Amino acid sequence: GAVVSQHPSRVICKSGTSVKIECRSLDFQATTMFWYRQFPKQSLMLMATSNEGSKATYEQGVEKDKFLINHASLTLSTLTVTSAHPEDSSFYICSARSDSSNQPQHFGDGTRLSIL
Amino acid sequence: QKEVEQDPGPLSVPEGAIVSLNCTYSNSAFQYFMWYRQYSRKGPELLMYTYSSGNKEDGRFTAQVDKSSKYISLFIRDSQPSDSATYLCAMTGLGNKFYFGSGTKLNVKP
Q: Which of A11, A43, A111 to mutate to test the interface with B (most CBs of B within 10 A)?
């Protein structure tokens, strides 16, 4: 149980393109979803927390107009990197948590984004 | 001071060894403790989830929490080359804020 699916797993695109990443909880309802960025050999950096039906809460330093998050249902959240540039190249990982207050996060397999 | 401290390693052990991975933390409000395993270019996978102090065993894995010392451990018995990965500890109290360690890279040599 507690499977989180993230797509696509790999994206290579030109500078200026907008890229959408999907995160789905397959066998549970995710009241809360998280989006992380991970640089090589570094730990997870939380970008934003989203609750179903409400606006995402962004961490300090994360541009909300650059990284658009939508959490329209209890099983789907999307991250759109708008007008991506080479410095946005990174490994993006989502996670989901059910509505019980003491549940752990379950992670997707990440999206490797490369902007040329 | 970071909320959670974890030695980044790398930790290199021979196959069959007992591995001990550790994290310390500073916030006494943490109640839920997790260990994740992350293979290269993959998302973290939940290994162990414990509440408050005590031990929890699952196969070759044992998680220990000592809240009085603010210290948690993950033990891996009979380690295998397939256990080679980065291990992340994580913890939380009430609410949605999770705190992650920086990860310990483990290499189990055949």
A: A43
